[in-house]
Amino acid sequence: MSVEFTGKQACIAPEGVFIIGTYDENGVPNAMNAAWGAQSDFDEITLFLAKHKTTENIKHSKAFTVAFATKDTVEIADYFGVETGNKVNKIEKAGCHVHKSSHVNAPIIEEFPVTLECECVSYSDETGILVGKIIAQQADEAVLTDGVVDYDKLQPIIFDIATKTYRLVGPVVGKAFHDGLKLK
Fold first, then answer.
1. Under the GO molecular function aspect, what terms does this record hold (predicted)?
2. CB of 140 within 8 A of CB of 95?
3. How far is CA 113 from CA 19, 72, 109, in A?
4. What are 123-156's pLDDT values in tens digits?
5. Is residue 1 in a domain?
6. Which residues of 123-160 are buried (b: 16+ CB within 10 A; e: fewer)?
7. At 130, which CATH number?
8. Residue numbers of the domain that contains 120
9. In terms of Cα–Cα distance, which of 157, 154, 158 is closest to 138?
C-alpha cells in the first residue's frame, strides 16, 4: 500500500551540495551551501537561491564559483549552510584557504577539489533564479582519470532532503546513450 505525502515532503534526488564562493564589496571572501541547482547547458549552471549575503555579493561582483562538496569536506560544507555571512567570516572561521580565480572575480576555496568559475548571466530577486556561465573549471589532479573528473575519486555528496542527511554519489550502474539501445 502506498503512503501519501504533501508536496513539501517530496524526496527529489539528487540535490547537489554546491558551495557558492563570492567576494563582498570589500573583497572579503564568503561561501554558502546551496542544494537546489543543476547544470542547465554545457557551459551553464542554474541555481535557486533565496536572498542571502551571497546573492548580494553576486549582484555586486557579477561572478561566483561553485565547488562540489565531498565526503572529505562534509563538515566545512555543512558549516557553510548553518552560519550566515552577515554575522561572521565563514571562510576564516572554517580555517579555509582561498585564492582569487584567474577567470572571474570570485574566490576558489582550496579545500574543495573541483570548482567551477562562473560569470553571472542573470539573477532575479523575485524568483531567486541565478544563471551562471561556466568560464573555467579547476580540478585537483588527485580526482582525475584520463583528464576527466572521476566521481569514484572525487566522492561528491548529495543532500537527501527526505532525511536531511548527506549521501555519497554511488557507483556506475549503466552507460548513458548506450544501454537503452538494446530496446531500440
1. FMN binding; oxidoreductase activity, acting on the CH-NH group of donors, NAD or NADP as acceptor
2. no
3. 12, 10, 9
4. 999 999 999 999 999 999 999 999 999 999 999 9
5. no
6. beeeeeebbbbbeeebbeeebeeeeebebeebbbbbbe
7. 2.30.110.10
8. 13-183
9. 154
